[in-house]
Specification:
Layout (H helix, E strand, L loop, with lengths): L1 E5 L8 H14 L2 E6 L1 H8 L8 E5 L10 H7 L4 H10 L5 E4 L3 H12 L9 E6 L7 E4 L9 H18 L7 E4 L10 H11 L5 E5 L11 E3 L2 H32 L2 H18 L1 H4 L1 E5 L5 E4 L5 H17 L1 H7 L16
Parallel strand pairs: 1-2, 1-4, 2-3, 4-11, 6-9, 7-8, 7-9
Antiparallel strand pairs: 5-6, 5-10, 10-11
Helix pairs in contact: 1-11, 3-5, 4-5, 6-7, 8-9
């Protein structure tokens, strides 16, 4: 297996990206194709190429977050993102991982790999680990801010496949993120989507409110990309806040109660932080394309990047993209009408 990695994307590229890729190659026993400026990458990998399966693919251009994704991809075909995705399209790599511009990765993947038949809009799915024994997949996390019920149905079916293969759950529980548990709650999109999911043949368990997400009641949470992205960034902000609280708590505990109390406090906070830390999950999967693409966090350092490559490896091992390609995404024959309610 060869995983193509965008060595130039992200806040800490290329040093931390290369460091994480080297760790992944060693730990997962896979080949890594590092995409970027070859002069720099040769220097960073010189001591490791003999004992690890590392290949360097030259990509002299870099796409920044500030650039328009469409213009950047069009004007910079030799940038690390399009070059890496082309490797997947040509069968020279089984997956692509990038911590670079999410918009550029999404647009380039869509244009080069193409979407699966029956899928109108690829979606970003991210594993959220609020419950230590029952993580769930949140889909969509930002690719599609404006959706219709049929789009959420497609997200639900892709999420169901992902949860079955990655979580190894025979019949994943699928829920619709809403502001109430009742069937007639929510905005127009939520009210119209509910009967569609109910008739889909999925294990649809109804609406779920945000304050119930940590209860371990569901395996796939479906929403539009606008709401999903806000939720994901809220969790990210919580993680940053807990990190600051832990550091303050350590100082106070050590000052007033000694080392043992500080270690107990740190253990509790660390357990919670680990479950909502983007570095643990590594990256989000871009589902609905003819290939495996993982979008890592822009602040990814070595650990996060290594875990993102691990997520790519699991998706390839389980054949998630291929199973989605073979799935039926036709709409159930139900009237799509608002049920009323607010």
């Amino acid at each position: 297996m060869i995983i193509a990695v965008d060595a130039m994307g992200g806040d800490y590229a290329p040093h931390e990206i290369v460091k994480g890729a080297l760790k992944a190659a060693e730990e997962y026993k896979i080949g890594i194709a590092l995409i970027g400026k070859k002069e720099i990458l040769h220097v960073l990998t010189a001591r490791h190429t003999k004992k690890l399966d590392i290949t360097i693919v030259d990509a002299p251009d870099v796409i920044s977050d500030e650039e328009s994704p469409i213009e950047a991809v069009t004007k910079k075909p030799n940038a690390s993102i399009p070059v890496g995705i082309q490797l997947v399209n040509q069968g020279k790599a089984q997956a692509f991982v990038s911590a670079g511009s999410t918009g550029a990765v999404f647009f380039c993947s869509f244009m080069i790999l193409g979407r699966v038949g029956g899928i109108e809009r690829p979606a970003i799915g991210s594993i959220v680990d609020l419950n230590i024994t029952n993580p769930f997949l949140l889909i969509d996390c930002g690719a599609n801010p404006n959706c219709k019920p049929r789009h959420l149905l497609q997200f639900a079916r892709m999420g169901d496949i992902y949860a079955r293969e990655i979580f190894q759950i025979p019949s994943p529980r699928v829920a619709l993120l809403n502001n109430g548990a009742e069937e007639n709650k929510g905005n127009q999109l939520a009210r119209e989507t509910y009967p569609v999911l109910k008739a889909s043949g999925l294990n649809f368990v109804g609406n779920i409110e945000a304050n119930s997400l940590s209860a371990g009641k569901v395996d796939v949470v479906v929403t539009d990309g606008f709401t999903g992205n806000i939720m994901l960034k809220t969790l990210e902000g919580m993680g940053d806040t807990f990190l600051k609280l832990r550091n303050v708590g350590q100082m106070l505990s050590r000052a007033s109660h000694g080392q043992s109390r500080a270690e107990l406090f740190d253990a509790g906070m660390s357990s919670l932080m680990k479950r909502i830390d983007y570095r643990e999950a590594g990256g989000a999967c871009l589902l609905g394309l003819n290939g495996t693409v993982i979008i890592a966090h822009g602040r990814s350092q070595a650990k996060a990047l290594k875990n993102a490559i691990g997520a790519a490896k699991r998706s390839v091992d389980r054949g998630v993209a291929e199973i989605i390609q073979q799935a039926d995404f036709s709409e159930p024959e139900v009237p799509v009408t608002a049920n009323g309610g607010t």
